[in-house]
Write a structure and sequence with these properties.
5 helices; 19% strand; 5-stranded mixed beta sheet
Length: 155
């Protein structure tokens, strides 16, 4: 399976959020080429500002595995993680973070101060675990289009 395949699965989760009137972000956690957890934004439904797709997917993965660490797993997220979610991903020690669209307004990169480091590929300091690999821009246009459509429908 490819990153694109798993991002399409994350987009399915994001569409669930869209249909529920939530900001359309979806995430899937993959381990051994198998999706072990899914999540989509449920902030409004749960009345919980921490109920982001990543947090829900991570919690489900931890419960599925009976472990608080995910070094052999990857997470595919339709939108650049916010600072809170980047922190959760850091503590999970997840092996790979793959996201689609950039989030200039609320993404983690807005809040990190650029400093030279082995991980700072021109985007600021590394907010993830040192062993975490980052892949950005997977199905970027499709992920961004869903967000744009959602916010246009709210205006």
């Amino acid at each position: 399976m490819t990153d694109e395949y798993y991002m399409l699965q994350a987009l399915k989760e994001a569409r669930k959020a869209y249909d529920a009137g939530e900001v359309p972000v979806g995430a899937v956690v993959v381990m051994g080429n198998k999706i072990i957890a899914r999540g989509h934004n449920q902030v409004e439904r749960l009345g919980d500002p921490t109920a982001h797709a990543e947090i829900i997917a991570l919690t489900s993965a931890f419960n599925h595995l009976g472990s608080k660490y995910l070094p052999e797993a990857s997470i595919h997220i339709t939108l650049e993680p916010c600072l809170m979610c980047a922190g959760a991903l850091y503590w999970s020690r997840i092996g790979r973070v793959v996201y689609g669209a950039d989030d200039e307004k609320n993404g983690y990169r807005k809040y990190v101060i650029p400093v030279p480091s082995i991980h700072s590929v021109g985007i600021g300091p590394w907010p993830f675990h040192p062993k975490t690999e980052l892949v950005s821009g997977t199905l970027k246009e499709e992920c961004a289009r869903l967000m744009k459509d959602f916010f246009q429908s709210k205006r």
